[in-house]
Amino acid sequence: MTAMLDVSYIIPSWATGSSSEPYNVLLIGAGNVNFGSDEGPWNHSYRLEQKLGSRLRVVAVIDPLLDRTDAVLAKKRASFVKSAYEGTKAYKDIVEFAKQMTPEDKPKLIVIGSPADTRGSDVPGKDLELQLIGLLPGIPLFIEKPIAAGEIPRAFRVAKSIEESQVLCSAGYMLRYLKAVQMMKQIIRENNLTVMSTIACYACAYEQILKPDWWNKELSGGPVIEQGTHFCDLSRYFGGDVDIDSVQAHAVGWDEAPGKLSKIGIDESKIEPVNRIPRVTTANWKYKNGAVGTFTHLVALQGKTYACEIEVYCDGYLLKLVDPYNAPVLRVRRPGSDAEEVHTFEGDDPFFSEISNFIDVIDHGPQAAEILSSFEDACKTYELTWAIRLASERSSTYKK
Ligand SMILES: NC(=O)c1ccc[n+]([C@@H]2O[C@H](COP(=O)([O-])OP(=O)(O)OC[C@H]3O[C@@H](n4cnc5c(N)ncnc54)[C@H](O)[C@@H]3O)[C@@H](O)[C@H]2O)c1
Fold it and tell me: What sequence ranges are listed for the domain Gfo/Idh/MocA-like oxidoreductase N-terminal (predicted)?
C-alpha cells in the first residue's frame, strides 16, 4: 500500500539512553502486522518503540514459526532499538510462556497479531483471548482485526468473557484514530447532527497482494471480511449499529466477464473454484436509527496505491474523507456555502495513535485517553462483514 516505514529518524530516549522503569510487552505473532513488511504501513513493534523509547522491553514473541521469530529478532538486535529485544525469548505458544514466566517478565501489555483463526472463539485452539485471560489474568490486550474468523455468536461470547474479566482491551480498527475521522466526529457532535447516510468505497491494488491465503476465502474470509472490514467499521463508527437483517449485497464473481483480472500475482488455479474471491462486492443496509449505508469493495486496481473514500451526509453537510491510508484529505461542505473546505493532516499516523492511546489508558486511566474500538464493537463489525458476504453469495454462481 505504501513503502516500508522510514525508521531513520531518532527517538530521543533511545539516543540519550535515559530510561525509567522498563515497560514489558508480549507480542503474539512474528508476522507483518507486528514487525512490518512492504505490504503496508502496519508495524506495531515500530509504534511501540516510538511510544515507549528505551523503556520498551519485549519480553517474548509467541509464534509457532520459531525461525520467523529468530529472523525478526535478529533484525531488531542489529539496529539502534536492540536494547528492547536483547532479552526477548521465543515461544511456540502462550502456555509455554506462562509456565516459564518470571515475575520480571510479566507483561504490562499483550499485542495480538496472530491470524484471526487463532482467536475470537471459544473453540479450543481458536480461543487465544480466553487462554490469555486464564493464564495471564488482568493484562491488557490489544487485538488485531478482524476480531474472529469463526462463528459470530462465539465471538460475542468471547466479548462477554473479556468484559466479565474486566481486562482492558482495544481492537485494531486504527482508522477511527485518524485526525480526519476525529474532525468528522467533532463536526457532527458540535453541530448536533444526525447522520443520514454513509457511502464508502474501498478499492485495493491487487497486483501487490501476494499472499495466496488472501485470495482464498476459505482461509481469509474474503476481501470484505479481511480488508473491507476497516471501512465497514468506519461506516458503523458514523452510522451506529446496523439492522443486520436489512443487509443486501451483490458481487462480481471471478468467473464472470467483468471479474477477469490480468495481473494476479499468485496462481489462482491452485485455489478451489468455490473458494476464489469476488472481484467486486457492493452492499447496502439500514442502520438501527433509520439512516442508510452503502459499501463497495473492489479488487480492481493495479500498481500500489489503494483508492479508498467514505462520505457521511447529514442535513446540510457532506463530510468526505479521501485516501485515509496514505494522505488523508477531508472535504467539508456546510450549510451556507456550496464551496468545500479542504483539510489535510500532514504526518498523521493512526497506527501510532491507537497504540499510544491504549498505553495512556493502561498507565493513566480513561481520563487520559479513549479506546475507540472495543472487542464487542469489533464483533458487530465482524457480524456486518459476514452479512455482506452471505448476502452477496446468494446471487453468485459459487456459493459457500
Ligand atoms: N490493522 C491493519 O491494518 C492490519 C494490517 C495487517 C494485518 N492485520 C491483521 O493482523 C493479523 C495478522 O496478519 P499478518 O499480516 O501479520 O499475518 P502474517 O501471516 O504475516 O503473520 C501472522 C503470524 O502469526 C503466526 N501464528 C499463527 N498461529 C499462531 C498462534 N496460535 N500464536 C501465535 N502466532 C501464531 C504465524 O506463524 C505468522 O508468523 C490478521 O488478522 C490481519 O488481518 C491488520
Answer: 24-173
Handedness of CA 214, 352, 344, 10 (dihedral sign): negative
Q: Which sign does the torsion angle of CA 392, 394, 399, 400 carry?
A: positive
CATH H-level, domain 12-174: superfamily: NAD(P)-binding Rossmann-like Domain (3.40.50.720)
Give residue 1's pLDDT: 53
The total number of residues shown for the chain amounts to 400
Assess whether pLDDT exceeds 60 at residue 4. Answer: no
Q: What is the DSSP letter of 277?
A: P
Closest to 200 (Cα-Cα) out of 330, 280, 298, 295: 295
CA distances from 234 to 45, 100, 311 (A): 25, 40, 10
CATH number of 176-348+374-394: 3.30.360.10
Task: List the residue whose alpha carbon is closest to atom 33 of ligand 1.
Answer: 63
Q: How large is the average pLDDT for residues 237-255? A: 97
The binding-site residues of ligand 1, defined as CB within 6 angstroms of any ligand atom, are 28-33, 42, 62-65, 68, 113-116, 118, 144-145, 172, 174, 226
Of 15-29, 49-63, 101-115, which gets the smallest average pLDDT? 15-29
> Mind listing the pLDDT tens digit for each residue in 108-124?
999 999 999 999 999 99
Report how far ligand 1's centroid is from the alpha carbon of 33 (Å).
Answer: 6
Q: What does the angle CA 179 – CA 308 – CA 5 come to, to the nearest 5 degrees?
A: 65
Prediction pTM value: 0.95
Domain boundaries, the chain: 12-174, 176-348+374-394
Minimal CA–CA distance to 382: which of 226, 220, 235, 214? 226
